[in-house]
C-alpha cells in the first residue's frame, strides 16, 4: 500500500490570506474542495497513523544540508559525542548514546502478548536489547517562562566544532514545525473541531528536533533493529526523507507496511497525545526501523559513491505544551471511549512515558 501524498499548498494559501486580513471569516474561506482535503488528512491519520505531505516551504536542499551536518556529527568518536550527554535532564537535550533507549515492546508485557497474537507476516522484528542508535535532542521554538516541567523545557546543548549548528538546526526545525502546524489545523477541520483546536495548545510546547544516527558499517546486517516496535509519546512526529530506508509502520487493521518517502516529501506520524485528544479515534501509529534488503542496497550504493554510512533520520517531535491539559476535545469528549483518556497534564504524561522507556532513570 502506498500512502497518499497531501500537497499543503492550497491550505497554506488560504491560511496566509486569513492571517494577513483579520476581517476575513476563516469558515468562509475554506471551500468544499479544501474541506475534502482536510477530511483526507484526518481519515488517513485515523486509518494508517501516518501521512505523506509536500510543503513548498521545506526544500530537498534544506533536508540535505541538515543530513550532511548530522552525518558529520555522528561520525565523530563516541567520547566526543558524549560531551553533549545530559542524562540528569532525561536526555531531553543533547545526545542520547546508543544502548540507552529501550523499545516499548521489550518491557511492555501486554504489548508482547498482542504481538504474539499477530499473524506471522505482520509481526515486528524482535529486538535483542536497547536500540543501537544515537539520538540528538534540540529544542525548537520558545519555551514557557514558568512551567512545572523544567527538565522538559531545558536550554539546548551546542557541540564544539560546528559553527553552523544552531542556524541549521533552527532553520530545519522551524520549517518542520510549520508543516506540523498546517497538518494539525487541517486534521482539526477534518475531525470536525475548530481549526486551532490542536495548535492553540501546542504553543510553547517542548518540541524537539531529534535526529537519530545509526552506524550501518557496524550494524548494517539485515534484520538489525535500530528502533524496536513502539509508538511515539508526543502529538505528531515529522521526518524528512532518510538516505537509507528501513521504516515499517502498522495500519489500524494490523497490516505491516514498509514506508517509501518520495523525494521532496515529509512523513508525519500520529503520536499518543493526538490519540488522547481524539479519545482513541486517531490512534498512535506503531512503527519500527530495521535493516531491510532495501537498506542493504542503499548501503552498497553509498559505499560505491564513498558517502557516509550513518543512517540519519531528520525526526521532529511536536508536543502539546507541558502545562496544558490532555483530554478529549469537542465532540470526542462525548464518545464511549472518552473515559479511557482522563484529563492529565501533558508534562506529567510525558514523564510517565519516559520512565517506562528508560530515559528518566538517571534523574
UniProtKB/TrEMBL annotation:
The keyword Ligase is assigned to this record: no
Extent of the signal sequence: none
GO molecular function: dioxygenase activity; metal ion binding
SUPFAM superfamilies: Clavaminate synthase-like
InterPro entries: IPNS-like_sf
Keywords in alphabetical order: Dioxygenase, Iron, Metal-binding, Oxidoreductase
Presence of keyword DNA repair: no
Cross-referenced PANTHER family: 2-OXOGLUTARATE (2OG) AND FE(II)-DEPENDENT OXYGENASE SUPERFAMILY PROTEIN, OXIDOREDUCTASE, 2OG-FE II OXYGENASE FAMILY PROTEIN
Protein's recorded name: Non-hem dioxygenase N-terminal domain
Amino acid at each position: 500500500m502506498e500512502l497518499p501524498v497531501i500537497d499543503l499548498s492550497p491550505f497554506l494559501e488560504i491560511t496566509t490570506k486569513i492571517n494577513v486580513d483579520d476581517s476575513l471569516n476563516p469558515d468562509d474561506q475554506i471551500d468544499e474542495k479544501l474541506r475534502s482535503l482536510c477530511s483526507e488528512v484526518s481519515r488517513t491519520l485515523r486509518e494508517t497513523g501516518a501521512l505523506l505531505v509536500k510543503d513548498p516551504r521545506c526544500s530537498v536542499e534544506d533536508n540535505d544540508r541538515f543530513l550532511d551536518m548530522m552525518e558529520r556529527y555522528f561520525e565523530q568518536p563516541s567520547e566526543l559525542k558524549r560531551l553533549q550527554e545530559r542524562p540528569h535532564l532525561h536526555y531531553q537535550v543533547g545526545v542520547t548514546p546508543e544502548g540507552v533507549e529501550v523499545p516499548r515492546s521489550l518491557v511492555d508485557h501486554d504489548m508482547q502478548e498482542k504481538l504474539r497474537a499477530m499473524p506471522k507476516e505482520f509481526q515486528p522484528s524482535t529486538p535483542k536489547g536497547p536500540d543501537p542508535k544515537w539520538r540528538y535532542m534540540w529544542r525548537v521554538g520558545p519555551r514557557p517562562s514558568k512551567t512545572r516541567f523544567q527538565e522538559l523545557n531545558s536550554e539546548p546543548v551546542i557541540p564544539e566544532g560546528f559553527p553552523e549548528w544552531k542556524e541549521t538546526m533552527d532553520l530545519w526545525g522551524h520549517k518542520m514545525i510549520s508543516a506540523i502546524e498546517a497538518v494539525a489545523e487541517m486534521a482539526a477541520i477534518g475531525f470536525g473541531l475548530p481549526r486551532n483546536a490542536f495548535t492553540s495548545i501546542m504553543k510553547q510546547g517542548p518540541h524537539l528536533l531529534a535526529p537519530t544516527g545509526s552506524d550501518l558499517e557496524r550494524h548494517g546486517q539485515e534484520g538489525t533493529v535500530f528502533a524496536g516496535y513502539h509508538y511515539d509519546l508526543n502529538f505528531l512526529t515529522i521526518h524528512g526523507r532518510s538516505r537509507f530506508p528501513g521504516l515499517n509502520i502498522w495500519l489500524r487493521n494490523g497490516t505491516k507496511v514498509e514506508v517509501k518517502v518520495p523525494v521532496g516529501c515529509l512523513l508525519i506520524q500520529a503520536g499518543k497525545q493526538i490519540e488522547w485528544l481524539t479519545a482513541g479515534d486517531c490512534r498512535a501509529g506503531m512503527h519500527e526501523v530495521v535493516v531491510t534488503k532495501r537498506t542493504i542496497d542503499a548501503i552498497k550504493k553509498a559505499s560505491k559513491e564513498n558517502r557516509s554510512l550513518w543512517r540519519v533520520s531528520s525526526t521532529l517531535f511536536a508536543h502539546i505544551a507541558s502545562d496544558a491539559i490532555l483530554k478529549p476535545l469537542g465532540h470526542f469528549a462525548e464518545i464511549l471511549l472518552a473515559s479511557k483518556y482522563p484529563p492529565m497534564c501533558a508534562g506529567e504524561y510525558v514523564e510517565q512515558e519516559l520512565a517506562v522507556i528508560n530515559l528518566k532513570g538517571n534523574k
